[in-house]
Amino acid sequence: MSRTHTSDVVVVGGGIIGLVTAWRAAQRGLTTTVVDPAPGGGAAQVAAGMLAAVTELHHGEQTLLGLNLESARRYPDFVAELTELTGRDLGYRRCGTLAVALDADDRAELRELHALQRRSGLESEWLSGRECRRLEPMLAPGVRGGLRVDGDHQIDPRRLAGALVDACGRAGVVLRRTWAERLDVRRGRAVSVTDSDGDELAAGSIVLAGGSLSGRLAGVPEAVLPPVRPVKGQVVRMTVPERYAPFLSRTVRAVVRGSQLYLVPRENGELVVGATSEELGWDTTVTAGGVYELLRDAHELVPGITELPLTETRAGLRPGSPDNAPLLGPTALEGLLLATGHYRNGVLLTPVTGDALAHALVTGELPDEARAFTPRRFDTVRMERMEQLV
């Protein structure tokens, strides 16, 4: 027999974005429920956890840069608060990033990135190949130069997810370990979510924070359906034996054969190598080809990597949006808000997303730093497409 449960807020999706939204909402005094069969799962279990607002800068993404930098600025206090509350070590490290070039083309591309960073008022330092190898002796002799970015940090997303599950529990958030099956809309307003147990979860506000699955919830009107797509990423994890430590002292990034590569060393001896970027729908298969390409490119960058034990291969789905930026806050449907589409910046944007959604849930509006990321920025495009179909 189905039952009705009522709260102020229902968050659909229990990844790090859904959890931080629920935690911050509960801190504002809102009774909150999260619907997810495995809270703390999702893309965070695959992600490397680079907090790389400076290194991740891309042409045409200056607006997103502002949000990334604001979230990075909040990270130390965010980590301190979570650690004090839960007693958990989140693996937060201020170790910086070294982005290197292996050939003349890569070197020219890095030079362009350096110029863009400087025009954007960001701090980075150009190093010669010799200076790069002095910082990281395990780098290949062929490294032609690089960018040292001390302002980029890292965190362990798996530990972060676990801490957020704990924080939600301590704040009184109800974690409902079921699937959200359908959004229920009545009289032009989102009023509840029906879950896989057949229960109705009624709320004044419903936040769709399901990552790449956000666009698949039944019952969401076409006009407000999140335009997110899954982008597959394969990642390899290794362990650095004590005899090889310290293998790398900071995150190392490079473009190898046109593909982005990163190596993220953890204090516990883990080394994360990633990641592929594949537009293959909902496929999450770990492939021999994907793993081979990662190991081949990593070996070209750091030859000694072939001596390390391979401990895990995983694949996950990033939620991509049309402009590679998140969709945050109220939609055109009353009662429905979004927190999705973070693409490659989900871990980085966790603090600012939680704050922005909590603000929107209480006031009905996004704070200034997040207003450019309203889901309604796509409304004109949607209307034009719908008119073409008529």
TrEMBL record:
GO biological process: thiamine biosynthetic process
Claim: Oxidoreductase is one of the keywords in the record: yes
GO molecular function, one term: glycine oxidase activity
The protein's enzyme class: oxidoreductase
FAD dependent oxidoreductase domain mapped to chain residues: 8-359
Catalysed reaction, written as an equation: glycine + O2 + H2O = glyoxylate + H2O2 + NH4(+)
GO annotation, cellular component aspect: cytoplasm
Pathway: Cofactor biosynthesis; thiamine diphosphate biosynthesis
Keyword Translocase: no
Keywords on record: Oxidoreductase, Thiamine biosynthesis
EC number(s) stated in the UniProt entry for this protein: 1.4.3.19
SUPFAM superfamilies, sorted: FAD-linked reductases, C-terminal domain, FAD/NAD(P)-binding domain
NCBIfam families referenced in this protein's UniProt entry, alphabetically: thiamin_ThiO
Name listed for the protein in its UniProt record: glycine oxidase
Organism taxonomic ancestry: Bacteria, Bacillati, Actinomycetota, Actinomycetes, Kitasatosporales
